[in-house]
Every structure is written in structure tokens, then in C-alpha cells.
Amino acid sequence: MTPVTTFKGKTVALFGLGGSGLSTAKALIAGGAQVCAWDDGEAGRLKAVAQGVPLEDLSQSDWSRFSALILTPGVPLTHPEPHWTVPLARAAGVEIIGDIELFCRERAAQTGGSPFIAITGTNGKSTTTALIAHILREAGRDVQLGGNIGVPILDLEPPSDERIHVIECSSFQIDLTPSLNPTIGILINLTPDHIDRHGTMENYAAVKERLVAGAEVALVGVDDAYTHAIGARLAANAREGQRVVPVSGARALDWGFYAEKGEVYFREQGHPPEEAELLGVLTGARALRGAHNAQNAAFAAAAGWECGLEDEEIARGLQSYPGLPHRMEEVGRIERALFVNDSKATNADAAEKALASFADIYWIIGGKPKEGGIEPLRGYFSRIRKAYLIGAASDDFARTLEGALPYEHCETLDVATFRAACDALAGDAAEPIVLLSPACASYDQFPNFEARGDAFRKHVQGLPTKLSARGGT
Q1: In Å, how far from its chain's centre is CA 126?
Q2: Which residue(s) pair with 366 in the sheet?
């Protein structure tokens, strides 16, 4: 835990008692703050009481007592409309912040600026975050990994000069972190997402930009128009001592970090192409296949290089990275068929990465649809043998697929997994891929993408018995 001492002796309001909210409450209490916590749900309040977190109905509170409102990132700050605590705090002149802001203040107070790598982007940020942590750990560094990936930031060990915090940041978290100033800030890419929470794409991009704007070293993608514009703007207005470095996963750059033809390079400004420094090779790194992972690898190698790692250390880390669950995760093989869990692909842009990485695909798709549906994926339909539709998006997706490729309404994931396995094994592909890459949120049938991916893994594990009973393998 990182006790939050910067609010010692002060009274703070805290709303939202999920995992990060409870973590924040306990860190504040450990640091000497008086916490008045609340949640709209009774289950959250009961859990808080069981863990010794004091409750107070904030709708009835005297807000002049509070030094801050700590809001958990799942609670709307601006759109579609502010949560009811937000106008109460603003009317009383109470600042509204989140757990990453508390960490940033503690870091400044305790160390003056210990090593802190913050990562954001629309897609790939979890893989990039985990890959950076892996490369650094393999090189013998003391690493704390968390934030929007897995462990809440205040559950991690406290900042110190010899410890590197590698933290994934969502746009919701950045919005609650006004003093975000990482040692290395990473902005991978931007595509439309979470518009319901930010109002417009421009607002969403502006929030993401804040992470790299405050960084000592800003590693900014150049492979989409939004990040390219952000990088150019930051470079033109860089603070004294700030470095803004371009990163590409798709092409060689005149300078900066880039991946090209399965290799990752760094090229110094003013140096010719032949003097580019080879940082690592992606051939053979099964957890990093696909063009999108070339982009992730370029950013991770860049972070390692900026942390002072040797090229050989970066190269070893890239090769030994085991991958993350639910991100093109190989969960099983039956005869020649490979089963891939890409449940994290909750929009079309994310699903595109898997479709581009495989051929002879038996594609399980559907769930709660995102804006734009799967029409942007039409260019990959030639890679797909058949689609298996589940969840609320089934009818909409069927209309898109009609006449383009065979599909089957399966309704649920267990049925889709079984039908896809049967068809894959009956077909003539040398290595058919049964791919769960839903291009949808999971909330119609599962609480989150992790639960959906876990269910797929379980269904795959049960396939031999079901296929045997059917007279298959």
C-alpha cells in the first residue's frame, strides 16, 4: 500500500466503493486522513463497512468540511451528466480528484519525482503497460505494475528513487489527475471511444493529451491523425527540458522509435537510416504477433531505452513476454484447430488487430454493440470462413454480414464455441482459428470482458468431451 499522507489531518469525501474506491479509502486512512465515504449501491456500502471504511451519506453532508472529493473513475465527471456529488463539490469550492492524483502528490512529497511511466491510448495500452513492466523486470529492475490494469495504484508499494511505477491510465483517470507529470508519458493511439463519457472526440483526445503534455519524456504515436497532431503540437511548444519523441509501429521514421518488418529500431535525429539502432526482433515472439503488437513493442522498447536498458535487455524482454489474458490469448488446441481468446476486443478497431493476424477464421462476435458496428471490418471478411453471432448485436451484425460471408445465430457463447469448433474441424484449413474477438462490450451477457474470456476458455476446455459425445474427435 501507498499511504496518502498529503491529506493527513484533513477530511475528505470519497464516492464509489468498488475496488479502486476501497483501496483509496484505506490508503487515505493509513495516511491520517478522515474519510467520509459513500456509494449509491448498498453492496458497496456493506463491503466498505466490513473493511473498516466509515460511511457518510454525502447528499446530507456539510461540504464546507471537505478538503477534496475523491471520485472513482467509473463515476461520470462531465458526461452524459455529472454525478450528483460533482455539483455539490463545485458549489462548495471542493476540488475533485482521483486515486492517481493522490499518488502523484504523494510521489512529489516523498521523493520529489521517482521513476513513473504512465501509459494511455485507445487500444493496446494494457499490452504495452504489461510489456514495459516485463522488460524492466527481466532486466532486474524493481517494478510496480497497476492502475487501470489489475491492481489499483494505491495498493502498490510506495514510490522510491529505485522503484519504477508502470501505470496504465484510462481517460476517466486522467480526467481526475490535474497534476499528472510522469517521468515517461506514452500516448499510443486514438480512435473514437467513450464518447458518451466525454461528449465529443475532441474532448476525449484533449483528455488523453494531458498525460503526455505533463511528461518529462513524451513518447507519442504518429500512426493516426489525432496522435500525430498532438505530437506535433507538443514538440512545437515543449517546455525547457521536455523531450517529445515520435513512435511508429508501421513505418520507419526520420528519427525516433519505430517497428519495421518485424524489427524495432531507434534512430537519432540527424543520423542516416543505416545508423538506426536495432533494439529487438519480433519474429518468434508469439505473444506479439500482428501489426498492432508491433506498435506496442515499439513503445515498450522506447520506454526501456529511455530507462537506460541495454539493447540486449530490451531484445530478451520482447522475446520472453508471455502475453496477457484475453488479448489474442491461445487458450487451447484440438487436433489442428487453434482457439484464441481475444475478449478484450470490445470495439471494431480492436477486433481488426486479430483479424489481420490470422487466416481461416471461425469468428465468434457479438455482445453490446459499439458505435459503428463491424462495417469497418469488411476488408477482412475474406479471412473469415464463418461467423457465429451472440448477444444483443446479433441482428445488426447479421445485416452487415448478409451476402458477404456465412453466419449463424448462436445467441450464447457456449453454443457459438461448440458450433465453431465443429465447423473448424470439419473444414479443410491446415490450421483453422476459432477466434473470440467480439467487437462489442460484454455487458449484455457478462459483467466484463474478463468474465467473457474466462467463460470461453472454460468452454474450450470442455470441448473434447462434447465433441466425443457428438461423435467427433
Answers
A1: 4
A2: 390
Burial 242-279 (b: 16+ CB within 10 A, else e): bebbbbbbbeebeebbbbbeebbbbbeeeeeeeebeeb
- CA-based nearest residue to 129, from 173, 183, 179, 188: 188
Catalytically annotated residue among 123, 148, 293, 341 = 148
194 catalytically annotated: yes
Is 125 annotated in the active site?
A: yes
pLDDT for residue 349: 86
pLDDT in tens, 29-56: 999 999 999 999 999 999 999 999 999 9
Confidence check: pLDDT of 192 > 90: no
The share of the chain scoring above pLDDT 90, in percent, equals 91
Residues 6+ apart with CB under 8 A from 141: 164, 307
The C-alpha cell that represents 249 in the structure block: 509501429
* CA 293/CA 429 separation, integer angstroms: 25
Peptide bond into 54 cis (omega under 30): no
* Banded model confidence at residue 473, pLDDT cuts 50, 70, 90: low
Give me the catalytic one of 10, 194, 409, 466. 194
352, HSE (Cβ side, Cα atoms, 13 Å): 16
**Coil/strand/helix, residue 197:** helix
Q: Look at residue 342 and tell me whether its pLDDT is greater than 70.
A: yes
Q: How many Cα neighbours within 13 Å face the side chain of 11?
A: 11
Query: Is residue 471 scored above 80 in pLDDT?
Result: no
The pLDDT of residue 472? 52
Q: Provide the residue count of the chain.
A: 473
pLDDT in tens, 122-142: 988 999 999 999 999 999 999
**Ordered structural domains, the chain, with CATH:** 5-97 (3.40.50.720), 106-320 (3.40.1190.10), 329-464 (3.90.190.20)
What amino acid occupies position 266?
Answer: F
Active site residue 261: no
